[in-house]
Design goal:
By secondary structure, the protein is mainly alpha-helical. It folds into two domains: about 55 residues, no CATH class; about 230 residues, MetI-like fold. It is globular. The two termini are about 30 Å apart. Pfam families: BPD_transp_1. InterPro entries: MetI-like, MetI-like_sf. Its main location: membrane. It is found in: Cell membrane.
Length: about 290
């Protein structure tokens, strides 16, 4: 079919608007990257840098040699890997159990999970619960309160319900029990869904901030996002944590802003590198458990 002038003109406008929106969205991150690679002496001598004349990786060398930042990077990596693995196991197992018709107490558990979506107890009850469990200032205080999501449980439950019952019946005839059916049949089939939710959980644990501020007191257990926030405050005000202030001011030749930008790039890089490989699972995850006509 031959495209009319109006059709081409409309498409040109749409693509132009999308290109402008994409450019505006990308510019702040590009500026952060440019400043992080700018030579410190050039940054101090100019008020605005678009394309630096001298490039430098001194800020990256510094933050990657700083014990505090490397320790926080390790804490966030532990949260993303271990926390995501535990969350996937709990969410998939709970979802599969709730999807079975003969599960005793199914309606009660579904109602209890639904209540957590409708009524959030708030910050103080959550803090009192974590404190009563003895988890304050432990790594598990960053994992257990965020171990699963009611929304993800309902999505995966619907996904398991869409699978044909003949799969389970055939496995039962071959002698498998419920655990065997789940491990040998259901988990391999649901790998795309598990990969999608694993990405969601990994991003959530990697970006852990509020729980780190609320439950963590020790400097050794601070996640990376908390350290970055403290660096931002230290770079823009005179009031900051002494350890962060010492980190930013120990090298007088390096401006705090370049160190801050380099830290932001290092914090964002792992998710940016992983996301393209899991993008197709991310798209599938948006449709997992959806109603099909």
């Amino acid at each position: 079919m031959q495209k009319t002038f109006g059709y081409k003109f409309t498409n040109a406008i749409i693509y132009t608007v999308l290109a402008i929106v994409g450019l505006v969205t990308l510019l702040p991150f590009l500026y952060v990257v440019i400043v992080s690679f700018t030579d410190p002496t050039e940054y101090l001598s100019k008020s605005l840098i678009i394309i630096p004349e001298k490039w430098s990786i001194s800020s990256y060398k510094y933050i990657l040699s700083t014990e505090m930042f490397l320790r926080s990077l390790g804490v966030s990596a532990f949260l993303a890997i271990v926390g995501s693995a535990i969350s996937i196991i709990v969410t998939s197992a709970l979802s599969y159990a709730l999807s079975r018709k003969r599960f005793f107490g199914k309606k009660f558990f579904l109602l209890a999970i639904l209540m957590t979506m409708l009524f959030n107890p708030g910050m103080i009850p959550n803090f009192l619960l974590v404190e009563s469990l003895g988890l304050i200032d432990t790594i598990w205080s960053l994992i257990l309160p965020a171990i699963t999501s009611a929304w993800y449980v309902f999505l995966m439950k619907n996904f398991y319900q869409e699978l044909p019952d003949e799969l389970e019946e055939a496995a039962k005839i071959d002698g498998s029990n419920d655990i065997g059916v789940f491990l040998r049949i259901m988990l391999p089939i649901s790998l795309p869904a598990i990969a999608a939710f694993g990405l969601f959980f990994a991003v959530g644990f990697w970006n852990t901030y509020f729980n780190g501020v609320l439950y963590i007191n020790s400097e050794e257990l601070r996640p990376m996002q908390v350290v970055l926030q403290m660096m931002l405050i230290s770079a823009s005000t005179n009031v900051a944590d002494p350890s962060v202030a010492a980190m930013l001011q120990s090298e007088q030749i390096l401006p705090p802003e370049t160190i801050k930008m380099a830290a932001v790039v290092v914090a964002s890089l792992p998710i940016i590198m992983v996301y393209p490989f899991l993008q197709k699972y991310f798209v599938k995850g948006m449709l997992v458990g959806s109603v099909k006509g």
